[in-house]
Every structure is written in structure tokens, then in C-alpha cells.
Amino acid sequence: MRNTKVIPLAVLSTLAALLILIVWHQEISFTPVLPSFGRADTNTKSARPSSDGFVKTSAEFKHLGYLKYVYTRSGYGGASKNSVLIASSIANENSFGKGRTFKDFLDVIESLDYHKNSLNLAMYCGSPALLRMVKDYFEAVTSDASCPYNQVTVLYAPFLQSVFKSSEHNPKVQRLRRRSIAKGRNFVLLNSLESEQYTLFLDADIIRFDHTDMLTRFARSGKDIVVPRIERGGSLDYDRNSWRGQRVIPSDRQLQLMDEDKWDEAAFVPHDVEAEMYHLGYQAEEVKDLPISDERRDMSYSVELDSVGGAVLFSKSIIYKQGIVFPTMNIVGTAWLRKEGYDGIETEGLCYMAQTLGYKCFAMPNLVAQHFDR
């Protein structure tokens, strides 16, 4: 009688152990890349990869209003030392410059002299047409495993679509335009950055790196936040948001109007105090006739900045992990009575925030990236 009871219990125990093992194995093999919160409003799908292929995970966050697609190489164990997330917030299919395509932009990224298996990509697509273009491309290169990167994240959020053109520099709309840009940068960052050691923001209309070892030099420098100099056509310093010095402060009357939320009447536009300002173009002019042996002509020569531009922007990812992001409002000159300050929006507020945690911003002005010239 004792044996007839023990044997079924042993069999049941064995079956239970096998069931647990099978479930555990499936969870390890198909751990979703995307968060699982809000399942009632989230449709998440994962596809089984080939042995050397990619897993595609797609999620529609209906309750949040955005889509996320992640392509991950099979066997990828997560980012490690010297890994870089290259992130881009792209407004639409025309953002690459006239006559250029998304593939041209990827060619610029691939020109970087950096181990491709240390690079991950993240793209925010600002239009349905661009989303289709980007998705179709990565569907193809991940299907045949020709994609050189370990992980690619593609995002689409209709509520972030902007009415401003990238070439729009009208002072009256700059605050609103740059608020939109900051939202896009933050969105792609917060929805893609994982354990990559560094982050490189790259605008879609960068057409060439004159120095393809730029990313390597940034990483080896140990600097917290670094930018190169951006040229466009005949301009030696196109990204004027990289600077060190003093900016004009609003008058008392203008500050009062800001407190009263009369921004149009205040008519204040942030600008330089010319005699107290340094831009990277000054460096280019100063060193062009110096001997090549002068340290100021060294490719890794750096200068400290108070503000950085975002066309090509390198940072230690741990800075973002601590809450430093791109301000969607002017943070310089804020007050409780005022909805926002009068300066320091988007990339121009990044260093202002980062310095409170002990981080510093730099430029390597002898390293050059070329911007599309309209």
C-alpha cells in the first residue's frame, strides 16, 4: 500500500519539475525588450530568430500613443564597455537634405571608424512615410543578418510631430521650434538608452565626418560632454549653439512682461554679448596659420564650453541616467511667477543642468563634421 502512494507522487513531482524547466527556458529565450506595463493597452509581439539572425519585438502602446520596434541580434547580451548608442530624432523623409535618403544617412554612420558591434542605433521617426522607410530598411537588413549593429530601436509618436522646418531660424518661433526638438531628443533617448556607456546624438543632415576617428577620440578623451566643429558650405562654424561666454540679459521691463506671460510684447531673443563670446569658428581662424606641431592644431585639442550644439553631440550616458536631459523650456532666468526663463532651451540648457552634478562640456574644434548645404 505504501508503494502505490509513493510512485504517483514521484511521477507528479518529476512532471512539475519538467514543466517549470520548460517555462523558465521560454522566458529566457523570449524575454521582451519592451516594458510589460499596461498590458491591457499594449500589443507586443516577438518573432523567433534564426541562429545568427535578429529578434524583432514590436509594441503598440495605445494608452501612451506611440509605437516601438526593436531589432536585436540573437545572442546579444547587452551593451558593455565602450558601447555607444547613436540616437537621431528625424522630423520626416526630407530631413536628410535635398537629394539624400535615409540610406545616405546610414552610410555616414557606417563611415565612423569604431567597432560596429559596439554600436546600437535609435531612430525617432516624425512622419508615417519616414517610419515606413526606416522600418522597411531594417526589416530587410535584419532578415538577412547583414545589419552590422547589435540592436536597433525605431520609434513613432504622432503627438510629437512638428510643424517647424529644420531650416526655420525666425527668432519669433525659435523658442517653440527648439521646444519641439528637445521633446524629440528626450523621447528617443528615454525610450532607447539601456546600458550603453556613451550616447552620440546625430542630426540627419550631417553628410560627412572629415575625421572618421572622431567617435574614438571622444570616447578616449574621458570628457563628459563633447562636440566637434560643424561646417556648412563656406561657414566654418555652423552650429552656433556651441559657445563659451556671456549672453544678453533681459531688461527689467522685459522680465516683468515675461512674468505677465506677455512673451510677444517682451520680444526678447537670446543673443551673445559679442565682446565676451567665444565660438568654435574663432578657433579655426586662429590656428590655420600655426605650425602643425602646435598643440592647438592637435586633433584631440579641446576647449571648455558653457553650451553645446546638437548636430553631433557625444555624452557619457550616465549623465542622462541621473536625470540630465534636454530642457523643453528656457531654464536660465526661471522664477515662480514666470512660465519659463529667457535662455537655455534644448542643447543650450544641457550643460547648464549637467554642471550642477559636476559634469563639464567641451569641444574638439579641430575635429569637423559637414552639414548639408542648402
Automatic annotation (TrEMBL):
GO molecular function, one term: alpha-1,6-mannosyltransferase activity
Gene Ontology BP terms: cell wall mannoprotein biosynthetic process; protein N-linked glycosylation
InterPro entries: Mannan_Polymerase_Subunit, Nucleotide-diphossugar_trans
Entries under Pfam families matching the protein: Anp1 (PF03452)
Family per similarity comment: Belongs to the ANP1/MMN9/VAN1 family.
Top-rank lineage group of the source organism: Eukaryota
Name by which UniProt lists this protein: Anp1 protein
GO cellular component, one term: mannan polymerase complex
